[in-house]
Sequence to fold (424 residues):
Amino acid sequence: MGALFAVLMTALLVAAPAAQATTPSPSPSPQQFQNNISGFLRDDTRAPIPGVKITARGNGFEGSATSSANGSWSIGVPTQGTYEVELDTSTLPEGITLAEGQENPRSVTFSQTSNLSVIFAFGKGIVLQEQNLAQNVLNRLVAGLSFGLLLALASVGLSLIFGTTGLTNFAHGEMVTLGALSVFVFNGLGLPLWIGIALALVVGAGFGFLQDSVLWRPLRLRGTGLVPMMIVSIGLALATRYLYQFFFGGATQQLPGAQVSDVQIGTLSLSPNTLWSLLVSAVVIGTLGFVLLKTRLGKATRAVADNPALAAASGIDVDRVIRIVWVVGGVLAALGGILWAYYRPGVTWDMGSQILLAIFAGVTLGGLGTVFGALIGSLVVGVFIELTSLVLPPDLKYVGALVIMIIVLLFRPQGILGRRERVG
Fold:
């Protein structure tokens, strides 16, 4: 099993170094580090500002970069922490000045992501004003819905797997990571983005099929208990994660179109990627709900999740249904990873493990093994995490997912749509 898995990962990621060299990205610093401070320079007409020098200092390090033709710049830093970022105003084109009230140099601190964005505003006579609370809440609410729906894609797959097999799969985060890494690799090979995304979904489906065929089905046939299988999934997660790091490296990379300016819709200021994520997630989840409720395969899947023994006695091929569930779970996890790479934005070797707690929180809140419960739970978790970012430091906003899990397990362990069951 280990040999087959290694062959699959090697075939997929061996081209990653070349992909890093060919993928369009903001002008990099001379040194490549895992953490980056980056941004885009735009004047008050939204035109890019090239040739401007930006310097970052802190933690015994000093590095600089010059904005490229599209206004992008990026400085790699060796460690996360607090840095002083300064824009050299002497390199600004004639007639362009920093907006009134801009702090330069400014102190910035890394948050949950390894890619820290810094924005400089330009324009004569412009005075920066903070958004009011209502507008901030509205922006965070929409962002939370988008985040919750992409969480739901991964959570629904995890919930389907748990419902049909009883397995708590801690390697599900690596299935999420695989989707984003695959798109990055295929794009580095020169394939169009839409083809890269389609192939990434195929890779996700193949990974799910391979897991069940080589690992989980043999363990089920041997009568392995759920706790030992859960421990195996933890080992698989660690092995896969560091295999990603070995081939992909520790740097944060960007997918095509990840760095885009926000658009204004009324009082909302949103990234176009957030809107696309909302649309794609809603369509996919709606389609999945139709399949589960209205098709023979969906009814068979729900029957296996409800009672595998009775489903087998009724003539349902339980192993075939479980295999299909693993394939669908792999596709959903890969799609969730792609959307997560655009939402962050950035692709890293451990990005799936970063939201694994939020995925488990959504499944637990909705009810273990219930697909629609996972959807509802993920939406609640996504909105809660984004809203708490208004009052909590960015490093602590994911603590909300842990708080939700604790509260649910204490007061309603079966979740929102789960059923009460006697244990013991």
